[in-house]
Amino acid sequence: MTSTSETDAHAPQADERSFYITTPIFYPNANLHMGHAYTVTVCDILARYHRLKGDATYLLTGTDENTGKVTDAAETAGKDVATFLDDIVDTYKTLFADLDISYDQFIRTSDQERHWPGAQEMWRRLEAAGDIYKDTYNGLYCRDCEAFLTERDLVDGKCPDHDTRPEEVEEENYFFRLSRYTDQIAEKMHSGGFQVLPKERENEVLSMLDEGLGDVSFSRPKEKVSWGIPVPGDEAQVIYVWCDALTNYISALGFGRENQQLFDRFWPADVHVIGKDILKFHAAFWPAMLMSAGMELSDTILVHGMITSGGYKMSKSRGNVIAPYELINEYGTDALRYYLARHISPFSDGDLTIERFEEVYNADLANGIGNLASRVLKMYVKFGYNYPTFSETQKMDQDALREEYESAFNRFELTEAANVVWRRIANLDQYITDSEPFKKIKEDEQKAKDDIGYLVHELFEIAVMLEPIMPDTAQKIKTAINNEESLAQPLFPRKE
Ligand code: MSP
Question: Ligand 1: does its nearest atom lie under 6 Å from the Cβ of 306?
């Protein structure tokens, strides 16, 4: 894992390319499931790709702890809130380590030193811009969404996401003038200053903006939510979930604090990766807040789909929930990362079942990269090799693959990027079949050694391309090549 300290950050270099990527911050209310694992893994793969390219890269993740539900959940667990939260955060960090997530910082919104000053500074800026006003709120509140819903959002009087009836609420709130920014956000999107990917999601946002968005509640009375950040200048109110949560993307970098080096270096963000259920907050609330505060907008909101199992949303009652550890323990971290990268499209819903996972594991990992690496390394150690020279066609093929791979990554098309790598693997398998160096070694040793040199070179290139997706596997292959060793154990033992 990379360093989590801020102290080693230095001032921006004039010619430095930077890449700032964020995960959503997770609610600390249950174990993280496959959908959460998916979000962080996608972010990690993108971050590792940019590090590999030499970009100054920063990956932020964390937890969204100032929610109404936290106090209830802590009470049910028989713990005080702080201990309850610490314990959950520990399990999240353990999972992220087991998924090999190379985050640079884990921000917690209950952190009074790191997060609160930024959230309060954001509030002051919105207020100074004249975008905060007090009013009485009458409405429907869904505790599970942590959001106010309108009649239009409901299905049979219930929240469609949680199948629960929202509470009727009447209270004093501060409101944020979201309505003032709808046109400006749409303009920014049209002019290319801010984008949502995929474009279908951007169109959804554009029609939402076109219909017009009303002002939104940005605070709640302290007597109703005791756990949260006080509104500057009004201790009776607490900054409300989304205003607080979204600000993590800048508070973590030092916004509102004395040391703003990270902020200067990395803001605006290149990409916020989110699930489609939190699109409105990221594509409307957040840019509006940034505009009101006089700050630059993030470049891209990348919206992935939801992970289902056997075609259904994972749910306890259906019994189709797959916990990340079921797969990590049985098949290994890299196998899970591989599946998420190659077999779930980042732009639509994706399915995962144990059967499908095992099929893919055997075909692409045990028989694919695992078998290829083991064959090539065996010949390399046993027969030796000549340094390869490449034909013009080979060079062109290599360049084309690299370009395709980079272009896929730059469009966030992880599936496409992984496909390029597996095409290279298939090409190399074919090369062994065609050239048969293990037979040729007896008749024409030099020619066989030329072939092995080529195979080893290509295997190394494959390992480099695998690095973002399967860092541990990539490392094992590179180490074996550098030390002229074969693999002591298969990378991916076949499962029957
Ligand atoms: N705390 C908010 C986010 C605040 S960001 C400033 C939140 N937290 S969450 O824990 O409920 O969800 C975190 C992320 O997981 C969201 O992006 C959500 O879309 C994603 N997913 C939750 N279930 C999912 C699937 N089944 N599949 C894929 N992603 C899913 O929302």
Answer: yes
